[in-house]
Amino acid sequence: MTSTQVDKDHQPADGTGDGGEGYQRGLGSRQIQMIAIGGAIGTGLFLGAGKAIHQAGPSLVLAYAIAGLVIFFIMRALGELLMYRPVSGSFAEYAREFVGPFAGFVTGWTYWLFWVVTGITEVTAAATYMTYWWNIPQWVSALVFTFVLYGANLISVKLFGELEFWFSMVKVTAIVGMILICAGVLTVGFSDAGDTATVAHLWNQGGFFPNGVGSTLMTLQIVMFAFLAVELVGVTAGESKDPKTVLPKAINTVPWRIAVFYVGALVMILSVVPWTEFQPGVSPFVAAFEKMGLQAGAAIVNFVVLTAALSSCNSGMYSTGRMLRDLALNGQGPRVFTRLTRGGTPLVGLTFSAALMLVGVWVNYVAPGKAFEYVVSFATISGMWAWIMILVCQIRYRAKCDRGILPPSSFRTPGAPWTSWFALCFIGMVIVMMGLDEGARVSLYCAPVWALLLGVSYLVLKARDPEGAAFAKHR
């Protein structure tokens, strides 16, 4: 399909229509902004940072800063594509147009799998966090959470947006509160940590790179996992009330979000508590609260990570239904996934994905321990595939713009295509680091199996429906 054909079949140039997709534009500026902010804050920061600090020491701050710059390049590349054509299918749609139908097929199904896998881990984690307060069976909590979030997503996109707004508000408030408390400890000297807290902790405990640069590089998988879901704002494009105005504002907040919520929070925590006192599996926020003598901190952080897990699961349900419907509309998935409710919700795709997330409760029950680490690794590699496609599509789109084949976007990526190439090289380095990590290496074993499965599935699709395999969008 040519770019001209695609443009006719999709979103109007002003981005005000529904693009023929049938969705309702129920997400306002307030909700999109908070989805964008909350997408960058999850359990990867609240829990995963403990292991990364133990491994890299204070240099983890630099790892988050550099990775955050790469994330900004990725988001600006996505923003340029979104302003060219804001659609719900997002990067899967762009992969079809700028790389080919098979790339769109792989991207759509891989991103769907990423959110199913993430939802499986997060709903189970949320159920585990509930045992902190009540001694109830884990499967009961998981079942209740899944059905509540499923029901909220089924009713309307506006309700999804409202839930995500408040989930994100809790996470943002927690981090800002921690930063202010740590600032008070450093300046005023209150709490048990007041006498020992100092910014010098960042370099006095063995230096800024206490375990060497290599150890810092090995934390990049954990760092990048923490940033997964920032691209979710692209999936909301087809349901945003004013995508041409709201989405650029949300994307441009990425630098200060990362500066405050990751770099700022870690600098403060590591100034109050020496990095040598952090242990894997223990939230750095809990450790900091305990060091300051604030025993209520554990309960507060437990509530926040519960919120973060539910937020991730909520986002997973939202995106999986949309991605399945986009695949179905392109003839690359069962047609039954195209069905919408009166509220504009992809009923069958959402139900199918939620059912698979329930299976995850059983999987985590029979395979505890290493299972979670393996799942996280696979989620990272599948999530990064979406980032790779965003960058490749932006490079190809810009090349067509430069040749006058396509109109330029109103939100051009600064420094492109060099910034996009830099981001691609960085992601490639992260994948190499994953190959050197015994715990993460399993994801690289799973990736070829998934690729083979997709390749065979596409060949079957091509044999049964050549038109569906060769063309994109609303046959």
UniProtKB/TrEMBL annotation:
<feature type="transmembrane region" description="Helical">
    <location>
        <begin position="34"/>
        <end position="53"/>
    </location>
</feature>
<feature type="compositionally biased region" description="Basic and acidic residues">
    <location>
        <begin position="1"/>
        <end position="12"/>
    </location>
</feature>
<feature type="transmembrane region" description="Helical">
    <location>
        <begin position="172"/>
        <end position="191"/>
    </location>
</feature>
<keyword id="KW-0472">Membrane</keyword>
<feature type="transmembrane region" description="Helical">
    <location>
        <begin position="98"/>
        <end position="118"/>
    </location>
</feature>
<dbReference type="InterPro" id="IPR004841">
    <property type="entry name" value="AA-permease/SLC12A_dom"/>
</dbReference>
<comment type="similarity">
    <text>Belongs to the amino acid-polyamine-organocation (APC) superfamily. Amino acid transporter (AAT) (TC 2.A.3.1) family.</text>
</comment>
<feature type="domain" description="Amino acid permease/ SLC12A">
    <location>
        <begin position="32"/>
        <end position="461"/>
    </location>
</feature>
<keyword id="KW-1133">Transmembrane helix</keyword>
<keyword id="KW-0029">Amino-acid transport</keyword>
<feature type="transmembrane region" description="Helical">
    <location>
        <begin position="59"/>
        <end position="78"/>
    </location>
</feature>
<dbReference type="InterPro" id="IPR004840">
    <property type="entry name" value="Amino_acid_permease_CS"/>
</dbReference>
<keyword id="KW-0812">Transmembrane</keyword>
<feature type="transmembrane region" description="Helical">
    <location>
        <begin position="293"/>
        <end position="313"/>
    </location>
</feature>
<keyword id="KW-0813">Transport</keyword>
<feature type="transmembrane region" description="Helical">
    <location>
        <begin position="374"/>
        <end position="397"/>
    </location>
</feature>
<feature type="region of interest" description="Disordered">
    <location>
        <begin position="1"/>
        <end position="22"/>
    </location>
</feature>
<dbReference type="Pfam" id="PF00324">
    <property type="entry name" value="AA_permease"/>
</dbReference>
<feature type="transmembrane region" description="Helical">
    <location>
        <begin position="254"/>
        <end position="273"/>
    </location>
</feature>
<dbReference type="GO" id="GO:0006865">
    <property type="term" value="P:amino acid transport"/>
</dbReference>
<feature type="transmembrane region" description="Helical">
    <location>
        <begin position="418"/>
        <end position="436"/>
    </location>
</feature>
<dbReference type="GO" id="GO:0055085">
    <property type="term" value="P:transmembrane transport"/>
</dbReference>
<feature type="transmembrane region" description="Helical">
    <location>
        <begin position="442"/>
        <end position="461"/>
    </location>
</feature>
<feature type="transmembrane region" description="Helical">
    <location>
        <begin position="347"/>
        <end position="368"/>
    </location>
</feature>
<keyword id="KW-1003">Cell membrane</keyword>
<protein>
    <submittedName>
        <fullName>Alanine glycine permease</fullName>
    </submittedName>
</protein>
<feature type="transmembrane region" description="Helical">
    <location>
        <begin position="211"/>
        <end position="233"/>
    </location>
</feature>
<feature type="transmembrane region" description="Helical">
    <location>
        <begin position="138"/>
        <end position="160"/>
    </location>
</feature>
<dbReference type="GO" id="GO:0005886">
    <property type="term" value="C:plasma membrane"/>
</dbReference>
